[in-house]
UniProtKB/TrEMBL annotation:
<dbReference type="GO" id="GO:0016298">
    <property type="term" value="F:lipase activity"/>
</dbReference>
<keyword id="KW-0443">Lipid metabolism</keyword>
<dbReference type="InterPro" id="IPR016035">
    <property type="entry name" value="Acyl_Trfase/lysoPLipase"/>
</dbReference>
<dbReference type="InterPro" id="IPR002641">
    <property type="entry name" value="PNPLA_dom"/>
</dbReference>
<protein>
    <recommendedName>
        <fullName>Patatin</fullName>
        <ecNumber>3.1.1.-</ecNumber>
    </recommendedName>
</protein>
<feature type="compositionally biased region" description="Low complexity">
    <location>
        <begin position="1"/>
        <end position="17"/>
    </location>
</feature>
<feature type="active site" description="Proton acceptor">
    <location>
        <position position="208"/>
    </location>
</feature>
<feature type="short sequence motif" description="GXGXXG">
    <location>
        <begin position="34"/>
        <end position="39"/>
    </location>
</feature>
<feature type="region of interest" description="Disordered">
    <location>
        <begin position="1"/>
        <end position="22"/>
    </location>
</feature>
<keyword id="KW-0378">Hydrolase</keyword>
<dbReference type="GO" id="GO:0016042">
    <property type="term" value="P:lipid catabolic process"/>
</dbReference>
<dbReference type="GO" id="GO:0006952">
    <property type="term" value="P:defense response"/>
</dbReference>
<feature type="short sequence motif" description="GXSXG">
    <location>
        <begin position="72"/>
        <end position="76"/>
    </location>
</feature>
<feature type="active site" description="Nucleophile">
    <location>
        <position position="74"/>
    </location>
</feature>
<dbReference type="Pfam" id="PF01734">
    <property type="entry name" value="Patatin"/>
</dbReference>
<keyword id="KW-0611">Plant defense</keyword>
<feature type="domain" description="PNPLA">
    <location>
        <begin position="30"/>
        <end position="221"/>
    </location>
</feature>
Length: 388
């Protein structure tokens, strides 16, 4: 990007989807990693969590009703937009159960598979590939802008004009018109991964014409935003409740080996065996660094149970690709999401980078049920304090 100066409708039962943190005890965050068509994995888990919340509260309960901020990158931003975009009644355009249906119906058009051939590396260098079908994204969230989302969102992108990160947030969009972009433009921009999808140009106009989320909320605390009670929350991460959802990786498959990579040149780093090593390494490293940092921080504060990371780092073959959107592969990715729910809660080993089961915390399904209970109790407390 470059910056210049058929859904399911929920009943309109509550136009205030999320009372502010100052009326409760916790600050609640959900983050979703990028990963192309592998977004089906977190989408499956999100649908399970929303179903649990509906069991506790009402059939109209939606994910956006329970989180103070939802953060997403690339396909995670697409999921974030779908979870927070309002309809004309200020409720949600999509329920979580709609997410997988959308990917199954539109995945082949949004993530068209690049044909592997002899000239593939050269085509990457020349920018011949033009993946992502942007018209599908633009039609998804209508004309909704970021300041109008039902709950706060955070989406990172890169401004290629100045070679620096740009963070689109609901809080900033409400106060800075130049940050109030359309959800569709934000989703397209954060998805513009080099060699996969083209860059996206758009302009925002003024009135005249998963660490990122924690940082953004902490910034609002320090700014003395009235939504955050300084005496109650300060900048203490022990008051944070975080669910972080990965889209899977292939680390345990040992796809790349050092004794082979040390002989690679430019072409091999750009394209090797149907994959793009340099993109894989950079994308995995960034998400893993955030996970390690947050895991260590919460463990140091003795509140590690307030942070739940759900990730599968053993993907192999087609399932580790970001753009194989065949029906067979998409169904397999949904199966991985369902299998993850049955697996034990795991945390990353900071020495090996491998996720290891945590004794005594049960399965991810059981952990999500516990988180759903906390989310429900916090919401009820906030509404009670506001006499809603």
């Amino acid at each position: 990007m470059e910056m210049d100066a058929a859904p399911t409708n929920a009943a309109n039962t509550n136009t205030m989807a999320q009372p502010p943190p100052s009326t409760g005890k916790l600050i609640k965050i959900q983050s979703i990693n990028g990963g192309g068509i592998r977004g089906l994995i977190p989408a499956t888990i999100i649908a399970f969590l929303e179903a649990k919340l509906q069991e506790l509260d009402s059939p109209e309960a939606r994910i956006a009703d329970y989180f103070d901020v939802i953060a997403g990158t690339s396909t995670g931003a697409l999921l974030t937009a779908m979870l927070t975009a309002p309809d004309n009644n200020k409720r949600l355009l999509f329920a979580a159960k709609d997410l997988n249906t959308f990917y199954l119906e539109n995945g082949p058009n949004i993530f068209p598979r690049k044909k592997a051939e002899f000239l593939t590396p050269l085509k990457m260098l020349l920018g011949v590939f033009k993946g992502l079908k942007y018209d599908k994204i633009k039609g998804l969230t209508h004309d909704v802008r970021i300041k109008d989302t039902v709950t706060n969102i955070v989406v990172p992108a890169v401004d290629v004009k100045y070679l620096q990160p740009v963070f689109f947030t609901t809080y900033e969009a409400k106060n800075e018109p130049l940050k109030n972009a359309h959800l569709s433009d934000i989703c397209i921009s954060t998805s513009a991964a080099p060699t996969y999808f083209p860059a996206h140009f758009f302009k925002t106009e003024g009135p005249d014409g998963n660490m990122v989320a924690m940082t953004m909320l902490t910034k609002e605390v320090l700014r003395r935003n009235p939504d955050f009670n300084m005496e109650k929350h300060s900048a203490d991460y022990r008051h944070y409740l975080i669910i972080s959802l990965g889209t899977g990786s292939s680390k345990q498959a040992e796809k790349y080996k050092a004794h082979q990579c040390d002989k690679w040149g430019l072409i091999q780093w750009l394209y090797h065996g149907g994959f793009t090593p340099i993109i894989d390494i950079l994308s995995h490293a960034s998400s893993d660094m955030v996970d390690i940092h947050v895991a260590v921080l919460f463990e140091a504060l003795q509140c590690e149970k307030n942070y739940l990371r759900i990730q599968d780092d053993s993907l192999t073959g087609k399932m580790s690709s970001v753009d194989i959107a065949t029906k067979e592969n998409m169904e397999s990715l949904i199966g991985i999401g369902k299998a993850l729910l049955k697996k034990p809660v795991a945390r990353v080993n900071i020495d090996t980078g491998v996720y290891e089961p945590v004794a005594g915390e049960g399965t991810n399904e059981e952990a999500l049920a516990r988180f759903a209970m906390k989310l429900s109790e916090e919401r009820k407390l906030r509404k009670s304090n506001l006499n809603l």
